[in-house]
Amino acid sequence: MDIKLREIKLDDIEMIRNWRNSPDVSKYMYTDTIISKENQTSWYEKVVKDKSCKYWIISYDNKSIGLASITGIDKALQSCYWAFYLGDSSIRGAGIGSKVEYNVIEYVFNELNLNKLRCEVFVVNDNVIKMHEKFGFRREAFYREHCIKGNQKLDVVGLALLKNEWEKTNEFFRKKIYS
């Protein structure tokens, strides 16, 4: 069975809040403040109106397992940021992240027709950095002490992929991931 990305709905926000509040997810986010129901509802009301972002529920075998997003969609710069997380830790390492990455890249370059897809990853999250680089993302920035969580100052790597780079390799990845 393949993954599916569907737009988030109001019915999803409690599930998303539970994922986001879990230590397995929040340790890779810029903030780890516990999100209240009110905060989550307010967030949802903002993002459904915001044309510079898009959020999807990731489902696998008809089960909701995580969230993917593109934010900062800028038509003038022809770029945006993307991120994802898997709220269901039991399926990590099963190739789901690669399928999500492939689908988001295809959406950004073929549906939105943007030129550059960017992301930011904590330096300590080496597996995700390697996954992005496998897809052709290049390191473009190094943000020193970019995030402070607790008493820990965390460095962040900024990565990006250009549309013309993706066009040279997307068929290879489609076959590799979906065969």
How would you describe this structure in keywords?
179 residues; alpha+beta; 7-stranded mixed beta sheet
SSE arrangement:
Elements: E1 3-7, H1 13-21, H2 23-26, H3 37-49, E2 54-60, E3 63-74, E4 79-86, H4 96-111, E5 116-122, H5 126-134, E6 138-149, E7 152-162, H6 163-178
Parallel strand pairs: 4-5
Antiparallel strand pairs: 1-2, 2-3, 3-4, 5-7, 6-7
Helix pairs in contact: 4-6
Characterize the main sheet. 7 strands, mixed
Contiguous runs where pLDDT drops below 50 for at least 5 residues: none
Quote the distance from N terminus to C terminus.
Answer: 12 Å
Q: Provide mean pLDDT, rounded.
A: 92
Number of separate strands: 7
The outline comes out as globular
Helical proportion, percent range: 25-40%
What topology, given as strand order, has the largest sheet?
1-2-3-4-5-7-6
Give the structure's gist in a few sentences.
The protein is an alpha+beta fold and 179 residues long. It is built from 6 helices and 7 strands; from the N terminus they run βαααβββαβαββα. β4 (79-86), α4 (96-111) and β5 (116-122) form a beta-alpha-beta unit.
Structural write-up:
With 179 residues, this protein is an alpha+beta fold. The chain has one domain (3-178): Gcn5-related N-acetyltransferase (GNAT) (Aminopeptidase). It is built from six helices and seven strands. Strands 1-2-3-4-5-7-6 form a seven-stranded mixed sheet. Strand 2 and strand 3 (63-74) form a beta hairpin. Helix 4 (96-111) packs across helix 6.
